[in-house]
Amino acid sequence: MKKILDFREKKNLIKIIKLIIFSFIGISLYYILPLFTKYLIDDIISTNSIKELKIWLFLGSGFSVFLHLYIFYFLKYQWDKIPLYFSVKLKKIILEKIFKIKKYNYKDFDKGQLLNYLISDSGTYANVMITYLGTLTIGILRVITGYIILFIINPILSLISAIFIPLYVFSMGINKKKLEQYSKLERIKADEFITNANKNIEGKIHINLYQKEKYFEKIFEKKLEEWRNIRLKYSYWYNFGKEVPMFVNTLSSFIIMSIGAYYVISQKMTLGSLIMFSQYLSMLFEPLSQITQAIVEKQSNKGILNRINNFYNYNEEKKLVLENGNKDNIIEIKDCTIYTENKEKLLEIEDFIINKSNGLYIIKGKNGSGKTTILNLLTQIASPEIIKKNKKNSTFYFSKEFIESCSYLYNPVYLFEGDVKTNIIFNNTEDPQYLKEIISMLNINNLDKKINFQNLNISLGEKQKIHLARVLYFSKDKNILLLDEPLSNLDYKTKENIKDYLGKLKEEKIILVVSHENLFDDIANKIYNIIDNKILEERKEVIE
């Protein structure tokens, strides 16, 4: 499995190596501090030298300023900066991956989970991995350095200290399985909770209108309680795993310092040397403790690490396979049945063909009869798996030209941050004359109006006009225009303008409209009615 962040990649590797080198230099500066202590106790205090004490204070103060400035920038700030850099990089990779998912496979993904990947899990992944790699490398270097110093000071005490190192190693694996288990469960329950919370926020007005606050509060509380229970179990094993090495640290300090005190009493060691040894001893056990905690953190977040990597390695399983149809047709569906996602029969199509001749084609039918599903299949939003062949020579075909030359009024309306004009142009190259023609036809006169998402300041009719204007603007260089209920929430005058506009546009493009209304009937080249789960051509009666 490929990792979403390859730390062997040159650019990434350089950043990690720099972080480790500068961090180790900063930590190594700490090794000078115990020498100050020993010199103060064994040399200055024992000789009662005030002059040397002043020099010691001056040098110690200067060194403290330098040390903490270095620590602030290279050990604190950089350890925030580098994970943040990788977190931002991860968010970009994840969004790019989301955009690459085939439209007809996207429905299989939990949107709350994707939101978690993008906002929360990406940051956790970056922090955990940088901390793990950095702490492991720096920690090993510190343990080696610290042990060498301890051995130089007192070989016997250093050998006794080494006995406790295996206990740290042992403590790393005490709760590994439990952490992995509850880490995975906690993420699943967090996704469910976030999805539910998001739905409550989106549906707040509807919930108020139907006075169903208590009902949805109970569902929310249930999801919240499930997450809380798993989170508590996760927290229990996480903290237990962190506390075991701290216990080893405390116990070892008592034992080693007791032996050291015996050496001082026996005059085999000076008091300054013992204090210096104790300070270096903490510098030995501190990185051991940090290594253990880094491993615990990685284990506790293994669920997040795995699912981010699994998402990154996700491969499209469902691929669109098109039959070889008549190249003179833009769409050709023969003897096929369309099913719902629940495997229920939706629509039988014996013969649905639209050739490459420009014109206006209308599909009518009851709600839920499959009108929009046809458009979603043609634009690869619906999975090709819902199409089943009824005969050996059945055909489901639409040309590559269709895929590349289609502009689709897809519902629901999508708006994004910006003014009305920005939402219409949608980052396309601006054509002032063409834009003026469209907004005049749709009677849009507020292009500079900022869309406020906190308190939506546009009506349903305005949203529909923006949506239509965008699709029409985008269709300038397209040959095919698909319109799903284009007249929803519009006033009569605007509807008439759209009819006149499409009446002219059908001479230049293939236009396929799904509509309940009869407004376009007299300018249509063909009308398809869906009756009794079958699509029939040239039926003029309106089916409601």
Name some characteristics of this structure.
single chain; 544 residues; alpha/beta; ABC transporter transmembrane region fold; Rossmann fold; 2 domains; six-stranded mixed beta sheet; 17 helices; transmembrane; ATP binding; Type_1_exporter; ATP-binding cassette, subfamily B; ATP hydrolysis activity
The overall strand count is: 10
Q: Which sheet architecture does the biggest sheet show? A: 6 strands, mixed
Low-confidence stretches: 539-544
N→C terminal distance: 53 Å
Structural class: alpha/beta
CATH class of the largest domain: Mainly Alpha
Summarize the amount of helix as a percent range: 55-70%
Beta strand %: 5-15%
Strand order of the largest sheet: 6-7-8-3-9-10
Shape: elongated
| DSSP helical segment count | 17
User: What is the CATH T-level topology of the largest domain?
Assistant: ABC transporter transmembrane region fold
Helix and strand element order: HHHHHHHHHHHEEEHEEHEHHHEHEEE
Total domain count: 2
Rg: 35 Å
Mean pLDDT: 85
Tell me which CATH architecture of the largest domain applies here: Up-down Bundle
**Assigned CATH superfamily of the largest domain:** ABC transporter type 1, transmembrane domain
Domain ABC transmembrane type-1: 19-300
Transmembrane segments: 12-33, 53-75, 124-141, 147-170, 246-265
Subcellular location: Cell membrane
Organism: Marinitoga hydrogenitolerans (strain DSM 16785 / JCM 12826 / AT1271)
